[in-house]
Amino acid sequence: MKPEKINVVTLGCAKNIVDSEILLKQLELQGYIVMHGSIEYQTDTVIINTCGFINDAKEESINAILKFAEAKSKGLIKKLIVIGCLSQKYMSELQKEIPEVDFYSGVNSYKKVLRYLGHNPVIKHLNDRIITGQGHYAYLKISEGCNRSCAFCTIPLIRGKHNSRPLGNILDETSLLAAKGVKELILIAQDLNYYGLDLYKKRMLPHLIKKIISKNEFEWIRLQYLYPSGLPESLLEIIKSNSKICKYIDIPIQHISNKILRLMKRNYSRYFVENLLWHIREKIPDVAIRTTLIVGHPGETKKEYEELKKFIIDFQFNRLGVFKYSHEDGTYSFNNYRDEVPGKTKEERAAELMEIQQDISLKQNYLKLNQVVKVLVDGVEGEYFTGRTEFDSPEVDHEVLVKKKYNLIPGSFYNVRITDATEFDLYGVPVS
To answer: Is 372-431 in the same CATH topology as 133-246?
Structure first.
């Protein structure tokens, strides 16, 4: 008999990518031919790892389920399995509305999926994964869930309380990733700062990073995401003093108005955020600070929005992402506030902030002209090799473009002299 083919389709964040990679490895160990994200329908089974964070993500997940459910009804696939955040939150509704799916499960479902397919997990390989991205960078999830109670956020409802992975378990996985050729390790969690408090009764992120650095397995180590409160000074010292740690701090502040921060239940003030951000810049002058913001949260009037806009102009973030508030059922905001800011207003505010950031980014990029920067080449797009500096995370940040005539090797590092710049891209030539 020919081995069965299984296609795993992943939607959503890097945490979902890691979950899918663990599942793919376990399926491969059972003898399946595994694919990731394929649009090919000629497979025996499709597993969709869904996202349910905000409305747009939910719609994308539902559309993917419906597409493959239709393919199943036409006999193009035999089994359809749905896992992840959307099915964790809306299991009964999905079972009722889309009965074509053979098996539903929630987050961290690899054991349940394996058992549904008639297998037990291979315990000794639980730290191993099939890397689905470029191969030279990989995400490492150091904890699951979140103990924060932000008013707008569904993560604790979906993924539960914060649960740190044991230190030894994480370090074992770093060695497996290094053996696969990973050069950039990206530590991820909903709240990296919280790592260790549940297991070891103290914040252990600086200790974990020192341990990873001491193994000398990676060229770059990147941190995503650092919640503003609880950020230890010792961590800033490590970032400042060690070249292995990317001078890149992803710190989602969400807003700057005291009124909105209070309504969001962020448990810090504008004064705290400003002091922290300026302190980071003073401590690590060449750091790139990335943040995310939410516009249109209940209670945000023109006054609070203008306060936020002025702060963005004054502080000049290196990287910025803006989300429109999504009224998610089950959250504190959903249960206690009206979604009173019109959708059009949310759109306009998000667009204006991104236009402001575009101007900021262009000015900052022009300052890099004639500088030589270290670049990790990710791949090829059109006439260019695409790469990133230590100040840029995959998928969300800027790229460095080098013409194909230079015959670079994806997954390798090069020194590149910057010759031109646009709002979100740098152009350059390799130098010896």
So the answer is: no
